Every structure is written in structure tokens, then in C-alpha cells.
């Protein structure tokens, strides 16, 4: 076994073992990521939230910007195949599949993501307290008794606190999850950095108020009131939270942009699965039948190379599902259809390779040379067909992203990933298997490689012809 085949075989074994681990080990986490399967609204249901702007002068451009911000926040929650669309001039409809904590998701959606530091005049304000700031003197507030969101009378919220920073100066690229070390205890936190005038004012205030409280406010609600230990000369700091869930909610609100208009939740309702478990089972059966039929065709028509191609196809399936779980990709019925279609496309490369191998062998080449020429001669066709399909997938994905047709995105994503994975299994996996099997070939075993021995012996020898 040459070093090249040995390295390729080790790579294949490692990738396959990793895929098996992600797919078969009961643990739902891998490298700190949730690798459980995620299903779309059509297969498991979810919740629908109707958001309304509280600003009567909201423009269509502001609502479109709000839609994009909400979409980014939803993706950060790990929810895929969502529906975020405009409804009228001042409303957004958001549909979230399989959300485990609806209240947290709703809070993340409606929060404007406006982070401020305020001068509390030496007071320690309780976390969760709604306050008026000089940047936002009239905050909307949820009414617990009626279950709807309305603007509270400013007189009931007390004085207006002077804002030290402006949320518009927040550097969203600097917002990252971190750990805050307090004595021997560590707590989840979010790091941030302000730019421009806010950074200057923050440095000046902290330098002159060491030992005094300075309250952190997110969307007019007190997060905490830490004591200033030292001047924040670079405009950076951290927000310490009690739980990872709280940290993630604040992180998503800050990192993916502030909403241009305040939104309140007008209604929420549960959505049942439009297709349900029966469709999932039917899709699994369809995928299994497709895989078996393709495998039988390859084995019966190409024999031993077909067996190797089937083994590569099984590895392809394992890698595909592992990537779906790790990314993660939410599977809807169109997404499953894209995967089933990619099974057939994954075999195309093997068909081209095996057909060229036969032709080269019939021309008088030895099996190893025929194998290498088969890959070399078929590669341009494999490359061009894969690129053309990937271009189509990219167009469908962009179309679904820009026009809110997210159901197309799932199909395009699973099909595009299938093409990329199939290139790996055909060019690396199948090629390595065939190279390892080549020394087993003899003339009396030509039928095992799907080659008609009589036809190959009757073929004219390779070389120049005299006409």
C-alpha cells in the first residue's frame, strides 16, 4: 500500500468515525454545539408571533430593516426555516419551528437591542426595573394583567436618567460571549465596545465616578448596576448575567443590530405541523428505497466497483446527516427532497468514472492505468456538472433569502451540500477504494469489474493506425 493510499484511507476512516459519532452517539452535544435533529414548521409545528411597531410614523424602509434584523436574531437562536415577513405597513409575522423557550424567543425578537449606560445618581436600581433615559424617555412596557404590550404613562416611571452612551455607537462586531470572574465564581457574560462619542463619555464618567454605581440598561430595562472599579478608557466592558440563556438573549439582541423602530408583541399562537410525523416516516422510507435501488443498480451493472461505490454512498449519507446536525440545518420536506435528489446526483460521478475505466481497459490499458485515466478523463465532466448545479443552488438560496421564500433555501442548501460531499466521496473515497482493489485484478476476474473479458480481448490494440 503506497503512502498516498494510506493517508487517504486514514482520512476516510477519521471522517467516517466522526460522522458515526455525531449520528449515533446518544449525546445531543458535540464540541459544545447542539447536534440534535431540527425539523421545520411543516414537520413539527411551532409558534407564530405578530409584532407591531409602536411608532405611528414608521416607514416601509424601517420595517424592511426591522425584518432583516429579526431574521438575523432568529438565526442566532438556532432556528432555521423560519418565516419573517411584512404584514401591512407596521407589522411583522414571525414563525418559529420547535422553539423550546417561547418566552425567551419573544423577548429577543421584540427587544430593540439598544444598550445604554446611565448615571443613576449613586443609586443601585434593581435588575428588571424599567427606567426612562435621556435617549429613550418613553419606553413601551408589557402589561402583565392584560397580556398585551402598550406604552406606559411616563409619569409612572419616575425621573429621566442621563444617558452616558448611545446604542448607535455600539460596535456590534465586538459583542461576544465570555466569562466574568467574580472572586472564585464565574458567570456567563457578554463583552462589548463603544465607539466615538460614547466611548469618550464612558471614559470620562468612569474616571470621575470610581466607587460609584453605573447602571447598564438594555431596552429601558436595568440589567445590572456594577460599581465602577476603574476608568473604562477604551470604551469596552462586560455585561454579567446569571444564566447562559440570559447571556444568549442579550448577545443576540446586541450583536445582530438594533431595531430601527420599537416592536411590541400583538399576538402569539401555536402552529400545528402541516405535514407531521407521517410525512417524516414517508420521507425516510423514500430516502431508504432510493438508496437501496441506486445501490442495486450500481452493483448489478458495475459489480465490484459498484460495491465500492455503494460503500462510498453509505459514507456520503453518514457525512451528510452529520453536517446537517452540526451546522445545524433545519429539515423540512423540501429539504429532505433535496437530500434524496442528491443521492442520485452523488452516483453520477461514479457512473462517469466507471464508464471511462471500461473504455480505457478495452483499449488495452492495464487496470491501474485504466483506473487513473478513468478519473482524469471523467473529471472535467464531473466538475462542470457539479459547478452548474451549485450555481443553481446558489441562485435558489439567494432568491429565498431576498424574497422571504425560506422553504426554497432548505432545498437549495441540502442539494448544494450534497454536491460538495459527493465530490469528496467520488474523488477521494471511491478512488482510494479502487486503487486499493486494483492489485486483486486478473484477466480471469475481469467480470468482477463489470468488463466483458471477450470484448476486451477482441478490442484492437492501442497504438497508431495506418490508413
In brief:
With 467 residues, this protein is α+β, with helices and mostly antiparallel strands. It contains twelve helices and 18 strands.
**Largest sheet at a glance?**
5 strands, mixed
In helices, the fraction of residues equals: 40-55%
What would you say the CATH architecture of the largest domain is?
2-Layer Sandwich
**SSE pattern, N- to C-terminal:** HEEEHEHEEHEEEEEEEHEEEHEHHEHHHH
Please give a structural write-up.
With 467 residues, this protein is α+β, with helices and mostly antiparallel strands. The chain folds into two domains: 220 residues, Multidrug efflux transporter AcrB transmembrane domain (Multidrug efflux transporter AcrB transmembrane fold, Up-down Bundle); 226 residues, Gyrase A, domain 2 (2-Layer Sandwich). Helices cover 49% and strands 18% of the residues. It has twelve helices and 18 strands. The strands form six sheets. Strands 8-11-7-14-15 form a five-stranded mixed beta sheet, with no helix packed on it. The chain has a four-stranded antiparallel beta sheet with strand order 5-6-4-17. It has a three-stranded antiparallel beta sheet with strand order 12-13-16, covered by helices on one side. A hairpin with a 2-residue loop joins strand 1 and strand 2. Helix 1 packs across helix 8, helix 4 packs parallel to helix 6 and helix 7 packs antiparallel against helix 8. The relative contact order is 0.13.
Amino acid at each position: 500500500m503506497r503512502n498516498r493510499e494510506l493517508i487517504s484511507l486514514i482520512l476516510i476512516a477519521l471522517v467516517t468515525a466522526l460522522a458515526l459519532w455525531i449520528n449515533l452517539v446518544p449525546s445531543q452535544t458535540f464540541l459544545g454545539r447542539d447536534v440534535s435533529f431540527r425539523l421545520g414548521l411543516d414537520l413539527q409545528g411551532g409558534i407564530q408571533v405578530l409584532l407591531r411597531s409602536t411608532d405611528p410614523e414608521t416607514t416601509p424602509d424601517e420595517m424592511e430593516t426591522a425584518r432583516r434584523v429579526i431574521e438575523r436574531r432568529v438565526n442566532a437562536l438556532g432556528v432555521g426555516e423560519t418565516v419573517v415577513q411584512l404584514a401591512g405597513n407596521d407589522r411583522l409575522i414571525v414563525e418559529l419551528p420547535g422553539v423550546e423557550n417561547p418566552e425567551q424567543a419573544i423577548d429577543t425578537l421584540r427587544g430593540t437591542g439598544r444598550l445604554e449606560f446611565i448615571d443613576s445618581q449613586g443609586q443601585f436600581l434593581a435588575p428588571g426595573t424599567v427606567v426612562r433615559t435621556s435617549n429613550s424617555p418613553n419606553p413601551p412596557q408589557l402589561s402583565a394583567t392584560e397580556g398585551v404590550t402598550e406604552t406606559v404613562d411616563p409619569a409612572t416611571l419616575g425621573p429621566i436618567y442621563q444617558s452616558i452612551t448611545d446604542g448607535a455607537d455600539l460596535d456590534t462586531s465586538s459583542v461576544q460571549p465570555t466569562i466574568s470572574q467574580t472572586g472564585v465564581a464565574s458567570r456567563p457574560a457578554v463583552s462589548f465596545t463603544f465607539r466615538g462619542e460614547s466611548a469618550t463619555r464612558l471614559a470620562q464618567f468612569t474616571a470621575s465616578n470610581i466607587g460609584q454605581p453605573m447602571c447598564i440598561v438594555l431596552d429601558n430595562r436595568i440589567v445590572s448596576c456594577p460599581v465602577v472599579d476603574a476608568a473604562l478608557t477604551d470604551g469596552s466592558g462586560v455585561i454579567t448575567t446569571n444564566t447562559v440563556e440570559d447571556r444568549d438573549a442579550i448577545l443576540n439582541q446586541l450583536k445582530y443590530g438594533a431595531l430601527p423602530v420599537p416592536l411590541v408583541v400583538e399576538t402569539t399562537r401555536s402552529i400545528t405541523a402541516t405535514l407531521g410525523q407521517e410525512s417524516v416516516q414517508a420521507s425516510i422510507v423514500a430516502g431508504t428505497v432510493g438508496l437501496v435501488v441506486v445501490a442495486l443498480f450500481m452493483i448489478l451493472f458495475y459489480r465490484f466497483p459498484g460495491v465500492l461505490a455503494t460503500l462510498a454512498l453509505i459514507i456520503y449519507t453518514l457525512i451528510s446527516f452529520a453536517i446537517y446536525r452540526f451546522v445545524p440545518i433545519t429539515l423540512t420536506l423540501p429539504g429532505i427532497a433535496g437530500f434524496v435528489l442528491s443521492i442520485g446526483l452523488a452516483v453520477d460521478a461514479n457512473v462517469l468514472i466507471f464508464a471511462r475505466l471500461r473504455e480505457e481497459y478495452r483499449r488495452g490499458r492495464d487496470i491501474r492505468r485504466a483506473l487513473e485515466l478513468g478519473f482524469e478523463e471523467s473529471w472535467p465532466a464531473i466538475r462542470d456538472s457539479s459547478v452548474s448545479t451549485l450555481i443553481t443552488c446558489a441562485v435558489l438560496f439567494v432568491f429565498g433569502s431576498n424574497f422571504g421564500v425560506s422553504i426554497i433555501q432548505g432545498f437549495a442548501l441540502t442539494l448544494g451540500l450534497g454536491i460538495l460531499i459527493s465530490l469528496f466521496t467520488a474523488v477521494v473515497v471511491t478512488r482510494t477504494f479502487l486503487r486499493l482493489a486494483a492489485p486483486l485484478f486478473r484477466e480471469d476476474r475481469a467480470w468482477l469489474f463489470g468488463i466483458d473479458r471477450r470484448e476486451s480481448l477482441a478490442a484492437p490494440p492501442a497504438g497508431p493506425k495506418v490508413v
